[in-house]
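To illustrate the input format used throughout this study, we show a single complete record. The first block contains the structure-token representation of the backbone; no residue identities are included at this stage. The design step must infer an amino acid for every position from geometry alone.
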């Protein structure tokens, strides 16, 4: 007897007339991206991201408001210093106050009285920070012996990964919280940010290549599930503005894995839903930052924005932008401000140093921020030593202003066709450390 033909395996993500809701295309029209100017001989560009709550001119630095606040600074002050958007964290907002509270308030922006665009991280960063305990992903040293079970010193593992998702043990009270692609999408939809990210597994540079390959496939499958859940939630919540979904690219320091991630997610479409943009995530060696961003930028669609997760140093901005990153975020400007460090065009310095006790000049003479226009180094030194809360507010305002303004100047230099000239001038001053 002739062989009986075998039907191909059913595609679990194929559209079904019975189950797939109508595609919410009308809502998607509120999000878009246009490319304007380009850096000659490089992948960098300027552009405009349209969101339901306003435009973002790119390249742009996105300050981090982890728990619906940039620590120590009012939202209106962030707007005044030039921030175009802020980024909050789904994991933290799920713990406090609960994403249902933000949903009832009308979304993240209304809850925190921020009128502009908002982003949310999916909780993927906590897969690493609560798992292995490593946090400064951009400065990891991959020369250490590979160890998939590596944990930071004095850290208790609080994130446990399986193929379906991640189980977190709360760092606050030890309660158990389950994240899956579907749960992350639900939480981010309730938070109501304009730009949300697919749930991913953030690995470390200490993981073996074998584990990186396994993790990359897990993240790819999670990305498909995120697209399905996002489509369904968008249809269910048609009374809310459309939320753009960015896929997250992993692959650590490996070119083939990074390019594969970009190719897979760049072309991924499930039931008519594709990614609206892309996040470049994962552990990065600082010296390879530009190379890795360049790999994925070469593979990704030109007409969609690229967000680099977790950078904040001036040299990193120039490198990332030149190689194709459009937006980026980091807690660094506010975190180091609270610990005494402030930035200037001529490098950074630490306000608690004794030499500033009688220094009545501003942090930087040419700075236009509220702090430099009104307060002296001596006053800030006093506030820090006296442990006054106002210190954190004033120095965070300055550091965020410095960071946002620097990226604004980079964007302007691209539009003027003088990116390389401005890069060499700005980094020459900053790295000269004349302070």
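Output of the design step:
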């Amino acid at each position: 007897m002739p062989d009986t033909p075998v039907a191909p395996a059913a595609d679990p993500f194929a559209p079904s007339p019975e189950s797939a809701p109508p595609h919410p295309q009308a809502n998607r029209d509120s999000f878009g991206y246009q490319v304007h100017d380009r850096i000659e001989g490089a992948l960098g560009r300027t552009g405009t991201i349209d969101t339901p709550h306003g435009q973002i001119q790119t390249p742009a630095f996105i300050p981090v408001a982890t728990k619906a606040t940039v620590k120590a600074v009012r939202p209106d002050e962030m707007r005044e210093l030039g921030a175009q958007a802020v980024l909050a964290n789904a994991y933290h907002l799920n713990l406090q106050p609960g994403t249902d509270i933000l949903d009832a308030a009308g979304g993240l922006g209304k809850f925190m009285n921020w009128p502009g665009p908002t982003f949310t991280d999916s909780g993927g960063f906590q897969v690493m920070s609560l798992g292995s305990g490593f946090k400064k992903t951009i400065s990891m040293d991959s020369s250490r012996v590979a160890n998939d079970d590596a944990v930071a010193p004095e850290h208790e593992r609080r994130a446990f990964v399986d193929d379906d998702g991640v189980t977190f043990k709360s760092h606050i009270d030890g309660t158990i919280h389950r994240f899956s692609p579907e749960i992350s999408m639900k939480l981010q939809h309730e938070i109501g940010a304009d730009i949300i990210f697919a749930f991913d597994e953030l690995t470390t540079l200490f993981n073996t290549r074998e584990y990186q390959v396994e993790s990359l496939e897990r993240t790819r499958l999670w990305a498909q599930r995120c697209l399905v859940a996002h489509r369904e939630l968008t249809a269910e919540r048609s009374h809310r503005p459309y939320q753009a979904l960015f896929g997250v690219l992993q692959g650590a320091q490996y070119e083939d894995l990074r390019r594969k991630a970009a190719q897979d997610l760049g072309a991924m479409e499930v039931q008519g839903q594709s990614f609206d943009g892309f996040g470049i995530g994962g552990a990065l060696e600082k010296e390879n930052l530009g190379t890795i961003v360049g790999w994925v930028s070469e593979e990704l669609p030109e007409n969609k924005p690229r967000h680099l997760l977790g950078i904040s140093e001036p040299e990193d901005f120039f490198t990332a932008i030149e190689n194709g990153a459009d937006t980026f975020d980091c807690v660094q400007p506010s975190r180091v401000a609270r610990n005494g460090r402030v930035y200037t065009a001529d490098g950074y310095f630490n306000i608690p140093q004794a030499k500033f006790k009688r220094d009545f000049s501003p942090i930087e003479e040419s700075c236009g921020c509220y702090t430099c226009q009104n307060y002296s180094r001596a006053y800030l030194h006093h506030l820090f030593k006296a442990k006054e809360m106002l210190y954190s507010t004033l120095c965070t305002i300055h550091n965020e202003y410095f960071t946002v303004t620097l990226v604004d100047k980079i964007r302007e230099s691209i539009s003027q066709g003088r990116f390389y000239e401005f890069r060499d001038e700005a980094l020459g001053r900053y790295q000269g450390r004349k302070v």
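Structural context for interpreting the output: Residues 1-19 have pLDDT under 50 and may be disordered. Residues 69 and 352 are 25 Å apart (CA to CA).
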